[in-house]
Structure formats: structure tokens, C-alpha cells
Amino acid sequence: MTNDQxxxxxxxxxxxLVEALSxxxxxxxxxxRDRRPDAIELLGGIPDPAVxxxxxxxxxxxxxxxxxxxxxxxxxxxxxxxxxxxxxAAREGVPxxxxxxxxxxxxxxxxxxxxxxxxxxxxxxxNPVFPLLLRGAELADARILPVPVGxxxxxxxxxxxxLRAGERPAALYTVPDFHNPSQGTLPxxxxxxxxxxxxxxxxxxxxxxxxxELRFRxxxxxxxxxxxSSHVLHVNTFTKTLGPGLRLGWLVLPEELAxxxxxxxxxxDSHSSTLVQAVVAELLTSDPGLFDTTLDRARALYRSRSxxxxxxxxxxxxxxxxxxxxxGGLFLWPRLRDDAVDADRLATDASAEGIEYQRGxxxxxxxxxxxxxxxxxxxxxxxxxxxxxxxVRIGRALRRxxxx
Amino acid sequence: MTNDQxxxxxxxxxxxLVEALSxxxxxxxxxxRDRRPDAIELLGGIPDPAVxxxxxxxxxxxxxxxxxxxxxxxxxxxxxxxxxxxxxAAREGVPxxxxxxxxxxxxxxxxxxxxxxxxxxxxxxxNPVFPLLLRGAELADARILPVPVGxxxxxxxxxxxxLRAGERPAALYTVPDFHNPSQGTLPxxxxxxxxxxxxxxxxxxxxxxxxxELRFRxxxxxxxxxxxSSHVLHVNTFTKTLGPGLRLGWLVLPEELAxxxxxxxxxxDSHSSTLVQAVVAELLTSDPGLFDTTLDRARALYRSRSxxxxxxxxxxxxxxxxxxxxxGGLFLWPRLRDDAVDADRLATDASAEGIEYQRGxxxxxxxxxxxxxxxxxxxxxxxxxxxxxxxVRIGRALRRxxxx
Lengths: 404, 404
What we know:
2 copies of one chain form a homodimer.
Chain A: H1 16-19, E1 40-42, H2 54-64, H3 82-92, E2 99-102, H4 105-116, E3 122-127, H5 131-137, E4 143-150, E5 153-154, H6 156-164, E6 171-174, H7 188-201, E7 204-208, H8 224-227, E8 232-237, E9 249-252, H9 258-267, H10 274-286, H11 290-316, E10 321-322, E11 331-332, E12 335-336, H12 343-352, E13 355-359, E14 375-378, H13 384-402
Parallel strand pairs in A: 1-13, 3-4, 3-6, 6-7, 7-8
Antiparallel strand pairs in A: 2-9, 4-5, 8-9, 10-12, 11-14, 13-14
Helix pairs in contact in A: 2-10, 4-9, 6-7, 11-13, 12-13
């Protein structure tokens, strides 16, 4: 008998960082919840399958899997396969050495948080904010500095005031195009100033741009300030354009920041699926017009859905919502005009009517927003009849409170 | 003019953990280096394309991408899609709730290190060890406790001595089947004892089993002790059987350990590619015999290559190497019999002859091994003629020192 037989089993200890990871709450992330098949779910930024090039992806897969030696089934290198990096680099206007292929946009953000935010350091974020980012920030046990977001995205002037007052974030998170949830787009001069502040005060901008290609109105704003700064991680993804299920995105990395991100990535999952990379590279390069044709169809579809849904809401609940027609993306962010309406009760009543959406109160990263008076409706994957029916039910849910 | 104009740009600070990540050295990871097309590379555990079911994967892709609504291109949930989890669970003999789909085996290890090893804590590892694990351990800035590996894998008795002497690792890493690099397999009684020690002393076993299905001789040893303990992460992957390029693996997780791993994963890349998961699930379930048929072909091929290469080495360099014929996997681990041979010079001379292999000196995690007198040859993706030519050149490289 060995002398450890007399010990009581020792409990496992948990790393402090892991112990502090919060339970999911509120925001119904698609990766955490089951779908509710009996309801009309307006929850997530889900692209419509009708505008994803499924057949072309299948055909591209057959081609890459018939190549001699089948390189698509073998290891590749951490930054991504050359053909895909080169296509992305050409679209971004940067050298391909600055492109790192990721497993989607959120993966790029998580690498950025882990690579650039010291444990317990400060991270400045949109307010209101894409709520999953706050969960991501827990990877560094980061403290949160909320920065107001207005009709034109991040309030960069306010950020400048915070910095001059002594705040020293390690990173700043914002969605510059079709802000999630509030739908504004950051103007060019604010982008230039944001980058200047980052360089001046030594923080890294995490510019999260998943909806950028889905502009269906107005003029695009250049991403050049993000792609030419030594202090910006420009985060993008094929999620909203070719399909979330690919799990394929990219970072545009300044040369100075690339080694730390690569060092982390090689220690986590090494590289993104060679197969998925090879298929997408084949898809995009074998028919150079395919990506833009796909986007044109998607933009037309989402513009129409956005307009139909906004009009139907006004018809079914006249005057109840103030809605800024979005210029792109997959969301409406209406404000309840009547302060007497209880927004939480509305969400509950809507759920009883078979409508699930994200209540605005899930989105603040700090005080001072009107998010509690708002609703986030995702319309991307619902056809027009479904959106009209959704508006009918939302109107009914509203009348449970307002009568009439 | 704002008052920050007078500041000098503030340098970006780097998280201490990231700053401490070591530069790659020695071990030539496929994800970090370019191939050398003029050489015979015996470097990595690469499966032969001829025994990967490329055509069947292409056909499965076409089928999943023609499903209505194309769920393979949409978001899925963090643990993986049900069809794939269920197939894996049936093969492992566990409930599907205990399966988490990963982006390959190393990804599972990295999740385990991040979830269970406090920063700066101790991790016990094989000695010699799969060197990339030491890089992975840097994700927790872990201190390393080497545990000897003998002809039958990890020396569990020695581990017990270390624990009784007061060592308290947070985790232990070992490759139980066809140890990498030293090729032994851990017997059942040692597995049982290892698990008992983990439960007694409160550490998590990271049982890394990528070669398990590639047994081509001898009797398999049950993985049941790993799949029935509350203290084991059983790490596996389709990398060596269906192709590294899929980036698809899995963890068998005890219920007690699952929430922490899931909490981390949702904050990193959310979930593995739905497309790859759906394709592999379709591949495996549409033809229930396919996986075993594929494995039978792979085992026959690797047994034959192993035997041919060992015999050719003996023929070209008679008596120079002591080679234990492996019972599975993709490596030979010969020992240089003559202590007068300089192993580093041999590797350099072999490189000049157009042969690249991993020198044994890359593999120790601490003192006391004979790894410096050994060589790791990967034979998986080289046909017999190439292996015979490799043996000729290795013989020539050896004679540069020994004469004759």
C-alpha cells in the first residue's frame, strides 16, 4: 500500500480567469441556444440561404478535392493559404503578408483581445455594444470603458476627452459600418481621428466590420484609415456574405502587431480549415465576378426586406416606432416613441405572440443610452410575408399594453 | 488645438503572457515552415492522400449543400452539430453530451491548458514529449514537470513518486497510444493507475490520442479509463484518419469539466465550421462502413511502409540503428547504436543529402532521456520507393562520419 492511500481526494483548482467567466445571460447568441421552431425569430444577423452561393461552393469543393495529392486535406500554415490571402489582400488594398485567415470575425476579435489586452487592463467599447464582445473581453478579465455611440457611430470626440482626462485603454472596440446594434456608420474624418488617437495614446483599435459589404443605400466610407495604421486590427469575415457555417474570416494586421497574433494562433488551433480556405479561394478566383454578383443579390434582398419591414411596422403600429432606415446590414433598431410602453413587457408579450427579438436593454455597455427604449430586429433571413406577419404580431403585442 | 498635441506618441504595452511566448525553434512544425520541395521530408505525422476519402468527402459536400435552407452554411452551436457528436459518442462509448467538437487535436489541448492550468502553475508532461505541447503550455505560462516515458509510455509509477513527494501539477499531458515520439503504448493497468492519481491529487489528464485508430499490429488497449473518469480530457481528431486539412477533432469531456471548456470556446471562435462538421457527419453516417474501411486501408499501408523503411535502414546502414518496430502510428524512433556518431552532424549531413527529419534532441522536456541519440522519421506520406531512397541517403550521411 502506497502512502497516498490515506489522503482524501484533493479537489481540482480552477484558474481565476476561468472561474470569473460569466454565465450567458440575456443576449441570445445562436451558438448557445436552441432555435424556437414555432416562432418567428428576429434574433441574429443571419444571412438568407437564398443569397449564399451553395451550388457554387459545392462545385468548388469537387474541384479542389480532385487536385493531385489533395492539398486541401493537408496541413497548411498559420496565416492561411496563399490564394485566399492574396484575394483578400487585393480587396483590402494591402500586401498579403498583412492578412491572417481566421475562423470568422469573432475569432479575430478574441485573438486581438488575448494578444493586446493585459489581464485586468481597460478596454474601451461602443455604448451600446455588440454584447458578445463583453463576453470576449472576459478572456483578459478586462475592465470596460464605455464610449457613447450616436447616429454616426462611435463618438470619437468623446473618446478623445476620456483619453485627455487620463483614461488609458489597451484597446478600443467599435463597429464602424452599420453599427451593431445602432446602425450608424462612422464618417471618414472620425476614422482618421480615431486612428490618430490610437497612435497617440498607444491603444489598438479592434475595428469589427462584418456588415461592411452589405451596404444597400448611400455612399461607402473608406476603410483606408484602418488598413494603413500601425494600431488597428481590421476584423472581417465571410460570415454575412458567403455563410456563417464556413467559419472563415480574416484580420488585416499591421506588421508590428502580426507576430503576437501569430504566436497565439499557433498555440491554439494552428490554422483555419485548409479545406474551407481552399474551397473559398477556388470559389472566388475561378469566377472573379462571383463575389460581387452574390453581394448585389444580397444587397437588393436586404434593402427590400428592410423597407418592407419598416413600412409594415408603421402600418401595424402607426406612430409607435421611430425607425431610421438603415443603409446596410441586417438589423432595424427602432425606438419606442411612447415612454409609457414597458419595453420588457413588450418583449414578453411579443414572445407570447410567437416573436423573438433582442430587447435593446441587452446592448448597453454603460449608462447614458436610450437602448432600453429600443428593439433590435434582425430581418436578414425572413421573407417579406414573414416580416409582414411579424409586424402584425408586434402590433398586437404592443396593443396588449396600449389598448386600441 | 487639443492638449494631447503636445504628447509624444505613447508606446503600446504588451501583455506579459504574450511577451513571454517563445520564438519557434528546432522542431519544424508544418504550420510554421515552408516545405522543401527538393528534399525527402520525413518531418511530420502526415497521412497519405491515397488513404484519405477525398472523393467521398466531395460527394458528401454536394449532398449537404443541396439540403433545403442549407443548414451547413449557417451558425451552429458551440459543442458541435448533433449528428457528428452522436457518431463520435457512439464510437467512444459515451453520451453525446460529453463530446465537444474542436478544430483538431491541438485545439483540444490548447482549450484544456487554458481551462485547467492557472497562470504559472505546474503541468506534468511526457519526457520525451511532443514538442509543440511545450509551446501550448505557454498559453498558461506553465512550469514544466517532466515525467519519464519508457517503452510502454508514461512511467506512471514515477509520476506517483513525484506526487507523493509533494509535486502538485494542475494537469498532466501524455500520448497513450503510439507515443510521440517514442512509440510505446500505455498498458491498461497504468491507465487505471494514472486516472486514480489524477482523481487523488486533483489534476486533469490531457490524454492526447491522435494515432489511436492507426494500430496495425498487436492488441488495442482500452481507452475506457480515460472515458469514465471525472479528471480526464480525452483528446482526439480526424487529422490522421480523414485529413489534417479538415481541422476537425473532438474532446471527450467529463460533465464536471465541460462548462469551463465551453465557456472558453464560446469566447474564442464560437464553434467549428458547420460545413466541415456536416460534411464529415454525412460521410460517416451515409455509409456506416466507410470509416473502418478507410482505416483498414490506412493501417495496411502504414504497416507496410514502416516495415519497408526499417528493413531498408538496416540494409543501408547495417547495425547502425536499434529500431523497435512500431505497432501503429506514423513514426520510427531509431536509436543510434554507436555513441561515436554525432547526432547533430548526422542531421546536417542528411539535410545535405536531401533528407529532412526531426532530430531526437528536439523532444526532451527535461534531462535523463536517450532522445539525443535518436531520430524521428515520419513515413506516413512517402511511398516505398521514396523510403528506400531515403534509407540509401541516410546511410550515405552516416558514412560521412563513420567512413566505410
